[in-house]
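F.,

This is the one I mentioned.
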């Protein structure tokens, strides 16, 4: 278990290579997809929209890592709406980002949208989890299985990213998580805990420790990651709750990511 007061360490994960693995799988699955299939977690999006979004996000991130500064969003598209053409287009965007990340000094300062963890390593982590979450979307739209990629250690880091990175980001965007009492989140398979404590002057304080009497959400890391990203319902059988269910529900119904 992580020690009290420290945020979750990603030192055991090579997130550049984790990104490459996830992106390669996304490209393979896109080639076998129905590009018109709807994406349940992204209302109004087709599989084609999903892959265009992810490819352009990779290109945007690559520019940021190269320059260390904010960059305009990208708006490119595949030449044809055919699965294999779209897959090759996406693979090119992902390969460009992979090469940029591999060549970068990930300890260097770099802009990001959250204002926390401001080194280039942020983008290896962010693009890994962006790709994994959208792999879940692709699987839900087209009936694929991706659980082999959603390892406990990687999903634990994804949960940590939501709590450490996205809660501050969403507050800056005007979406304040509904949290009125301490809430502990615990992964049963990797035994990591985070307790969120409400603050009036900023996002919840996140500490890696349990707090007696706090409301509790627990489950395996993959189920918690899907729950926080709203890729699984609150009544998912892999997640359990202890404490005030109304308070917990209000937090989970908040806009926590994006």
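My design for it:
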């Amino acid at each position: 278990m992580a020690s009290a007061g420290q945020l979750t360490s990603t030192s055991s994960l090579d997130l550049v290579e984790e990104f490459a693995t996830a992106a390669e799988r996304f490209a393979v699955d896109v080639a076998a997809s129905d590009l018109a299939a709807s994406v349940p977690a992204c209302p109004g999006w087709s599989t084609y929209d999903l892959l265009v979004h992810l490819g352009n996000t990779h290109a945007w991130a690559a520019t940021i890592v190269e320059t260390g500064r904010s960059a305009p969003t990208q708006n490119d598209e595949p030449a044809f709406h055919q699965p294999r053409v779209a897959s090759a287009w996406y693979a090119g965007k992902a390969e460009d980002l992979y090469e940029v990340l591999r060549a970068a000094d990930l300890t260097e300062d770099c802009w990001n949208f959250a204002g926390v963890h401001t080194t280039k390593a942020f983008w290896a982590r962010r693009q890994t989890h962006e790709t994994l979450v959208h792999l879940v979307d692709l699987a839900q739209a087209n009936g694929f299985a991706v659980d082999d990629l959603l390892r406990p250690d990687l999903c634990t880091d994804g949960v940590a990213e939501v709590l450490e990175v996205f809660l501050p980001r969403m507050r800056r965007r005007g979406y304040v998580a509904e949290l009125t009492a301490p809430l502990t989140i615990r992964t049963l398979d990797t035994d990591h805990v985070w307790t969120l404590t409400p603050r009036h002057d900023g996002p919840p304080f996140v500490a890696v420790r349990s707090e007696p009497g706090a409301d509790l959400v627990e489950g395996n890391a993959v189920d918690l990651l899907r729950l926080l990203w709203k890729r699984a319902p609150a009544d998912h059988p892999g997640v359990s709750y202890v404490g005030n269910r109304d308070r917990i529900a209000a937090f989970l119904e908040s806009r926590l990511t994006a």
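Residues 15-142 form a domain with the Four Helix Bundle (Hemerythrin (Met), subunit A) fold (CATH 1.20.120.450).

Talk soon.
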